[in-house]
Each structure stands twice: as structure tokens, then as C-alpha cells.
Amino acid sequence: MTEQKNTKQWVALIAMGLGVFMGLLDITVVNVALPTMARGFNTTFTNLQWVLNSYTLVYAVTLMIMSKLGDMYGRKKIFLGSLLLFTVASAINGMAPTLLILDISRGIQAIGGAGTMSLSMALVASNFEGKKRGLALGILGSIIGVSSASGPLIGGYLVEHFGWPAIFYVNVPFGILAVVLTIKYVQETPSYGKNQRLDLVGMFLSAIGLFAIIYALIVKESHPALSWLNPNISGFLGAGIIILIVFVIVEKHVKDPMMDVNMFKKPHFLGTIAVAFTLGSGIYAYNTFLTVLMQNYIGYSAVQTGIRQLTISAWALILGPLTGILSARYSKKWMIAISLLVGGLGFFLMAKSISPTVSFTDLWPGMVLMGIANGMVNPLLNTAGMENALPREMGMVSGLLNVFRQLGTTVGIVGLGLIQNIRYENYLNKSLHQVQMPDSALKGIKKALINAGAFSGHSIAFSTRMEKAPFAKDLQRVVIDAYNNGMMAVAISSCIIVVLGAVAAASLMRNRKNPRKD
């Protein structure tokens, strides 16, 4: 009987792992498909932005809501419903005849992705006990780390061999498998909502507040030249902050709140969400810039980039189960803090390696250290976050950790992007006049390069038309140097972020040996 129970537990973990992997993969996998989608829908990259943004927005906004519904009505039920929704929406995405239908179905798919992600940790915590819980959460952390970094590789391969619909169709068989395994092997958790009223006001306020903040950040990311005082940025950002303040006030006074705001008074919980934010803003956000460096500037294809980024993601598979064993013997907070410092050293090495002739050979030592940090911290964070939570709070704790991880990623992409663009633009302003070209050409080229930003400046400088200009080589050298200045600043900024995360972990987190019981 014991052996049969053990087998069921690990098969249940496969089901939950599949749900997490698909939900997180679909945040990044679309990036490499955009050029093919643009041709398929006969549209521009700008119009395709909402294929990405609709998923990111709805995913972040619904994480806490799905967590609360799982806590109240049974996590297995909501997780299963989320899997079904995600799988059906994936099929619709692949068949979408118009961009509008694709955008809408991506938003629906994100609700399913948020449900599977936010409830997976809580389900693992309730389906496993003792040392096996730490090991299972470690394995789940490995899956989180791998899924976030493997988008370019998986997406690139599928698009190259089967076309863009394949990145969505591939979810269908795995989704069906996860549904079957969940029904048969995952144990349901108690329903804590039998005597509670659903906090619809709290859910509405949290969703609208998060939506406004993330929307403002997405606008700024898409239009870096816009001022922070632009109404589409400052208006939504200010409104989001005010709405979340109102949300906190409301939650303090309702009988059955969506979220116990007293959790934020606990130093240990503050430490865990600070580390989650650090992972997003330091490590996951940096992956975006590393992908652009490899594809746009070094010249690797999407698949070649993905293979090389296994230098980062493979560590999650190796270290995740190991952290589950180590966390039972050693201090989680110090393992997290030290691992983040290792990641900081990795970013420092990456900054030092940036040059006009940079290649994977120069980057891999820093990437390895970055991968070790991610592979250690993610599963340890899951365990540390869950171990002091009451059973009825586990879903919400899981949801909040994921909200701060996702919010950190969005903030990091915007913040690091602004730092990169400022350094890039300053270098162009300082050095472009050294290129021997007519003043009229200088003015137009400078404007085009600045408007394109660091991500796309390379395509202008190395375009077929520009290659014919007598000053092409000098111009290209300046553009590459400007980009390198920005990339070095991004790597150093990420280094600072993870070091601050290490300080937060060491000073706020507590070592818990006796988890609380309900």
C-alpha cells in the first residue's frame, strides 16, 4: 500500500509539472514565432504585440484570483478546470483565422495558465509530506526554471519545422495527458470556503489594480521614448497604485477577505516575495536581453540560441531535486542568499565579456553561474514559501510568489530596457559625429537609430541599403559599441538586483524547522 501511494504521488507530480511547464512556456515561446506570424497574418510586429501582452496581462492579473478559488473550493477542481481551459484555448490559438481571435483566445489561455501555475505549488505541498515535500517542490522548481528559459529553443524548433500554429497545438496532447493524470492521481485538498462568502470586491480591485500597473509598464516597454508623464503611463500607473491601496483597506475590513494582508507583516514572507521579485527582475528579465544579443548581434538562429541557453536552463533540472535534499539539512535562507551572490558574479562576468567580437565562448562562464543561481533559488523559494503557511493559505502564498515573480519580470524588462536605451542613445549622441558622412545623412540616421532602440539598431546599421554607403563600416562599429555599452549596463544592473535580493533573503527570511499546522 505504501509503495502504491508513493507511485501515485510521483505520477501526480508529473501531472502538476506538465501544467506548470505549459503555462510558463507560453509566456516566452511566442517571441520566436512573431516573424512567421507577421507573414501569416500579413501584419506588422506592432500589431502582433498583443499576442504577447494579452497573455502576460491576464496571466498576472488572475494568479491571485485562481489561487483563492482553489483554496476555497478545492485546488484539484480549479487546477483541473484550468488545465482544460488552457488546452482548449491552445487549440483555438492554433486555428485562429484572425489576429483578434488569437488575441482573445491568448487571454483565455492565460487564465488557464495562471490557474495551473498558482495552484501547482499548493497541490504539491498538500499531496506530499515531510522530506518528500521538499524534494517534490524542488523538482517543481526545476520545471519552473526550465520552462522559463526553454521558450526560444522549443519555439524555434517548432516554428522552423511545423509553422507557428505548432507552438500552440503541441499543448493539446500534453494537456489531455495532464488532465487524465490529474483526475486519476492528484488528491483533492479540503474546501475552505464552505462557510465563507466570495470576496468579489477584493477580486475585482486586485485584478484592476494589477492590470493598470502592468499595462502602464507594457506601454513604456513598447514605447521607450514616451515620457513617464504620458497619460497612458502615469495615468494607469497612478490609478493602479491607488486601486491596490484601496484593495488593502477593503481587505482589512471585510469578514472573509480574498487575501490576509497581515501576511505582509511577517519578515519571512516579505523575504520570500523579495526573492521572487529578484528572480523576475534580475534573472528572467535579463534572458530577454541575452536572447537579443545572441540573435540580433552575434547572429545565432532561434534554435542555436536556445541550444546555447541550455547552459542556463539545464542547471534547473540538475539542481532542483538536489535542493530538496539539501534543504532538509541546511539553512534555506543562506542557500538562497549565497546562490544569488553566485548569480551576481555571473552577471559581472557577462558584463566583462561584452565586446565587438563577443561569442558564446566568452559568455558561457557567466551563463553557467546564472543558471546555478536560478537552479538553486527557484525550488528553495517554493519550499521556504510553503513551509510556514497554513494549509488554507497555501494557494494564496503560491499565487503571491508567482505574482511577484511575474511583476518582477515585467518591471525588470522595462527598467533594464530603459538603462540600456539611455546608455545606447548617449553613446550614439557622443560618437556618431565621428563618422564621416553628410550632415543631412547624419541627422536622419541618428534619428532612425534612436527610434529603433538598442534592440533593432543593428538591423538598420547592417541593412542592405546601408551596406552600400562608403561610411558603413564606421557606422556599424559605432552602433555595436553603443549596444555594448547598454548591454554592460544591463548586466551590471542585474548584478546589483540579485545582490540586493541576497541581502533581503539573509536579513528577512527565517529558518523554519516546524511548519505550522491548521
From TrEMBL:
Protein origin, superkingdom: Bacteria
Membrane topology: Multi-pass membrane protein
Predominant localisation class: membrane
Residues making up the signal peptide according to the UniProt record: none
GO terms, molecular function: transmembrane transporter activity
InterPro entries: EmrB-like, MFS, MFS_dom, MFS_trans_sf
Cellular component terms per the entry's GO annotation: plasma membrane
Pfam family, one: MFS_1
Domain Major facilitator superfamily (MFS) profile positions: 12-513
Keyword Chloroplast: no
Parts of the chain that traverse the membrane: 12-36, 48-66, 78-102, 108-128, 135-154, 166-186, 198-219, 231-249, 269-286, 306-327, 334-351, 363-381, 402-422, 487-509
Cell compartments where the protein resides: Cell membrane
Record key words, sorted: Cell membrane, Membrane, Transmembrane, Transmembrane helix, Transport
SUPFAM superfamilies: MFS general substrate transporter
Family: Belongs to the major facilitator superfamily. EmrB family.
PANTHER family: MAJOR FACILITATOR SUPERFAMILY MULTIDRUG TRANSPORTER MFSC
Protein name: Drug resistance transporter, EmrB QacA subfamily protein
Organism: Liquorilactobacillus oeni DSM 19972
